[in-house]
Amino acid sequence: MSKRRNWFCGSEEHQISRRGFLGTAAATAGSMSALNLLREPCLAAELKKQDKRVILLWLAGGASQLETWDPKPGRPTGGPFAAIPTSVPGIHISELMPKMAQRMEDTAIIRSLNTKDGSHGGGARMMHLGRRDEAAVKYPDLGAVLARELGSVDSSVPDNVSFYTATEGRGNAVGQAGFLGARYLPMSLTTNSKPDNLARLDSISDLDHLQRHELRELLSNKFIDYRDSSSLRSHNEAYSRVRGLMASDQLFDVSKEPQAIRDLYGPSLFAEQCLIARRLVEAGTPFVKVSRAWWDSHGQNFETHLELVSELDHVMSTLLDDLKQRGLLENTMVITLAEFGRTPKINASLGRDHFASAWSCSLSGCGIKGGMVYGATDENGQTVKDGEIDAGDLFATIYQALGIDPHSEYHVGSRPIPLVHEKASAVTEVLA
Q1: Within 13 Å, how many C-alpha atoms sit on residue 299's CB side?
Q2: Which residues contact residue 253 at a Cβ distance below 8 angstroms, ignoring those fewer than 6 apart?
Q3: Which of 143, 173, 207, 276 gives 287 a disulfide partner, CB atoms 3.0 to 4.6 angstroms apart?
Q4: Are β-strands 372-374 and 107-113 bridged in parallel, bridged antiparallel, or unpaired?
Q5: Is residue 48 part of a domain?
Q6: CA dist 166 to 101, 265, 348, 421, Å?
Q7: Which Pfam families has this protein been placed in (predicted)?
Q8: Are 334 and 57 in contact (CB under 8 A)?
Q9: Which domain does 247 fall in, by range?
């Protein structure tokens, strides 16, 4: 959700006074007016009609590819867990994922990421933006782009939601709209699974609230009639959505789900937030990120992954089943991704350290050819031996699977800026 919407959610980080609001609008009007976002309007309208959605399962801290999608049993780097066959002949994944092993027909594994940044902060930014910021240009992250491309101005639901309720690694959590503007920032939920202060106060009747909204809209429209400012229009648009967003608060309430569905997902916070993510995409939210922390297993890697991968296996398989049974999976992509993987070498603390040279992610559902593996690492998982890709290639693949041309361009002033870096190309082998 955009920062402007967060002002109405009572977030202390985003609260702003009337004077501060007007000051910010005036200060940013000049820079925003230089941004041309009218990119292929007919194509954009068609994408919005198709109701495509993305759920990103962000494995914060760096999950091990060796204990998930790219096991190396019997090798010195392999660790104690075996590889098991899946429902697709020839594909094996970690024994910690038996439920996903039976659902591989909807999932493609990419085993050949080389993103070259093994730091939490830099790696997380890279895997959210698909490239590095420039000194003069701040790029939008995946959620902001998809909110812009797949969201609707008149939607009554938030178009970019991010759950990160753990404390570990929260400083590395990325929510950046860059040159797209604050309209496309996420609704960031960091303390609980439901936005604060989204409901109408009991002391204000629905009629009073409607009339206040109409009065504000009347005055605002008169104010901008003779002022050509994209910043003011963006503020007005955000305000106009408030009543609809307030009505969406029940989407975050899992008590509205049948108990049988809640039991299927399980009692963990990650499970609850994935269930909310399903509720949101079903209602029309284009992008939801659910973060599960903390995978940074420098010590006791195998105990950590026994717990976390087992949870991921259960929740992810339940989410895919739920989406599929509701007819949503064909229009919803589910991604597992982290800032990097973990070293094949096992350290003295029985841990694995940061490793960005040869690691894995998964793509399921919308636009994806399931039941396949792209790329390969060597026998010990030290290097990519086939199909090496970087963050930009992955982003190009995601965009193309959703029907978005990754090489289409925005313009900041007169400068054209493509959605991915100029050398990036989609992995067509995983596209349906």
Answers
A1: 1
A2: 194
A3: 143
A4: parallel
A5: yes
A6: 28, 19, 27, 32
A7: DUF1501
A8: yes
A9: 195-252
